[in-house]
Amino acid sequence: MTDESTRDDGRQRRQELGSFLRRQRERLERAAYGLPPAGRGRAVGLRREEVSYLSGVSVTWYTWLEQGRDIHPSRQVLDAVAAALRLSDAEHDYVLSLVGLAPRPAVRADAVDVAPAHVQRFLDALDDHPAYALAPDWGIAGWNSAYERLYPGVATTSSEDRNLLWLVFTDPSVRSLLDDWDDTSRRFLAEFRAEAGPRLSDPRYRDLVARLTTASDEFRTRWNEHGVGGFVSRERVFRHPSLGRLVFEHHQLRPSDHTDVQLVVYVADAETRRRFARTTD
């Protein structure tokens, strides 16, 4: 990117930020802030001075933001303005992105014990492709019938133990099902650690790690290695006790309206699909 195009990109971002903030300010209900109507009984829209007071940002600085001036606001300033304008999480992150700042750190997610209904419908629609939904702490919050055929234990395991990491390290049937248990368990643990980093103080995470540390020597050893890794789509091979060797492609999805839930989908090859179809005839 040339210097001129870089300057042009920065200018467009500043203009978009100014227009966005002004639009948000002008749509706010004054009564929601305990403010009286403005001139001519206007009930909607805050003045720049009022946003300045509510955010603790100087009027001049806030005005320059709306004007698209070439200034460099800090995250603290933008967080304060976002709070004053009562921006949604998506709007807040959008403002940060316009000035080149990373999204806000992940906060502790609420517990998810059961997949949202529309997520479960999506899992069911995948038919012969095994799929399940993971909560932030890797509890299995939903699954389809194909996944239950692959791993029947998911339906009979107690809700407390129905956690992917727990099952991988403590359930002998899962160990025998996985063609490459050693590699898969290491990958899963590295992925879990990468995702759990911002939430390790959450009691659900602390308790899970403590339980696994006590229950599994292999988990304890590998957890202390501090491996971290991201998800990679790849081939997965299973050794099913009745269906034999099954081959899938392993994918991960996140619903845009429930990014705290991850969907894991196994796309079966042709032979595996035929075997799965026979189990439902």
UniProtKB/TrEMBL annotation:
Signal peptide per UniProt: none
Record SUPFAM superfamilies: lambda repressor-like DNA-binding domains
Cross-referenced InterPro entries: Cro/C1-type_HTH (IPR001387), Lambda_DNA-bd_dom_sf (IPR010982), MLTR_LBD (IPR041413)
Name used for this protein in its record: XRE family transcriptional regulator
Organism: Microbacterium laevaniformans
Database matches in SMART domains: HTH_XRE
Pfam families: HTH_31, MLTR_LBD
TM helices/strands, residue ranges: none
Molecular function as annotated in GO: DNA binding
